[in-house]
Write a structure and sequence with these properties.
alpha+beta; Porin; 2 domains; eight-stranded antiparallel barrel; 1 helix; 8 strands; 16% helix
Length: 176
């Protein structure tokens, strides 16, 4: 009798647990929220080092259209200068067949710059409107690696803190 009771409790628990896991999986699959971002590290001459972190959270309005909010934190240093940059703003992505995407995001940046050679410090702000797109590679059930190119439509060579308007992008997204 004891074996039948323990077996019944174990079987009932296993069925209940399996149903909860399947229900949670279905809830995760039906969630419209997406999460992701990018991480970058760079090295170069004159002791150049760059560390960048760019988190993002999005919401799927449809299976192919997503809006959201992203941030960007960057630190750079070399023998001649150091800088820190913080940016944030909205984005929108449209997906084609889960293989390609077009994207637009508006970022407002706060930049602190220090020139070590001339003992010069500068704080400034800049807004960038990045437009572009790229390719997506699925790396899990609902996870993707995104590779793309973006162009800052507001880039002005004479006033920008950025070295150019065209930037490559690499990021990860979970929840698509």
């Amino acid at each position: 009798m004891m074996k039948k009771t323990v077996l019944s409790v174990f079987l009932f628990s296993a069925i209940t647990l399996n149903a909860q896991v399947e229900n949670n999986y279905q809830n995760e699959k039906s969630s419209n929220w997406t999460f992701g971002g990018g991480l970058g590290v760079g090295f170069g001459s004159n002791s150049y080092f760059n560390l960048q972190f760019a988190p993002r959270v999005g919401y799927k309005l449809t299976n192919d259209f997503e809006i959201g909010f992203m941030g960007n934190i960057s630190w750079q240093t070399s023998d001649f200068y150091k800088s820190s940059m913080f940016g944030f703003g909205p984005f929108a992505n449209y997906y084609f067949g889960r293989s390609f995407f077009v994207s637009g995001n508006l970022q407002h940046f706060f930049v602190n710059y220090e020139d070590k050679f001339y003992d010069f410090k500068n704080n400034q702000q800049e807004t960038a409107l990045y437009l572009g797109g790229g390719y997506m590679q699925q790396i899990g059930n609902n996870s993707f690696l995104q590779l793309g190119v973006m162009y800052n439509a507001l880039y002005n060579e004479n006033r920008s803190v950025f070295s150019g308007g065209l930037i490559p992008t690499v990021g990860f997204v979970v929840g698509l």
